[in-house]
Amino acid sequence: MEGQATKTSAVDGKADAAVAEPGTSSRGSQSLADRLFLTLRSEIVEGRIAAGSKISEPELARRFDASRGSLREALMRLESLSLIERRVNVGARVVDLTERGLLEIYDVREALEGMACRLAAQNRSEEDLVELRQMLERHEQQEELQKGTAYFQPEGDFDFHFRIVQAAHNDLLIDTLCNKLYYRVRMYRYQLGMASPRAHRAFREHSHIIEAIEAGDGELAEILMRRHIRASRSNIENKLSKQN
């Protein structure tokens, strides 16, 4: 996996075989919309459809052999996650990775993920702690991390930040950070933050945060997470400035 994507058209690349069959019934159409949504979400987050790329509905419909209805439903869901945006006289585009967007989203992350750590220290279960430790053990086996060149985290339950929020056991916080903002945040992290000379340091920071949560020290856990996210933001800012 690469840490930075090359800008391409939204229709480049091979179509996913899982979404090759058009839906013919309402149930089939919904299933196809789900698969279109998941495929396009992954391609946008990972940069295979590059930030700023124009979305052509006719070309995507041909690529996936999909009905316009299924495709539009998938695109609406991507828009709800702030992965694409519609502009007057321009149409739909993948969102850009900008310095302003970075600062805004990382300000929110620092506040809310810091809170999540504090709540996790109070509310976590023993099962949460076991799963967090097991997750870090899996991360530690990554060849890129051992070399210190990158720290790639799969999405969802295998993502450190996702699991910390889950351990907070606060439904509103989970909805905000694991649903509404998660994939926009992950887009920045995946394309600009995971391939980094900070790999070893980031892993150690994760370990220290879990230790604070395990000790029930919410104040320390929040401080460590805020510091961790500020360092991550600084790393991505440096990459963006070099691109510009």
UniProtKB/TrEMBL annotation:
Pfam families: FCD, GntR. The keyword Signal does not apply. The keyword Transmembrane helix does not apply. InterPro entries: GntR_C (IPR011711), TF_FadR/GntR_C (IPR008920), Tscrpt_reg_HTH_GntR (IPR000524), WH-like_DNA-bd_sf (IPR036388), WH_DNA-bd_sf (IPR036390). Residues 30-97 form the HTH gntR-type domain. Residues 1-29 are annotated as: Disordered. Coiled coil: none annotated. It comes from the Bacteria. SUPFAM superfamilies: GntR ligand-binding domain-like, Winged helix' DNA-binding domain. Keywords: DNA-binding, Transcription, Transcription regulation. GO terms for molecular function: DNA binding; DNA-binding transcription factor activity. This is DNA-binding GntR family transcriptional regulator. It comes from Microbulbifer hydrolyticus.
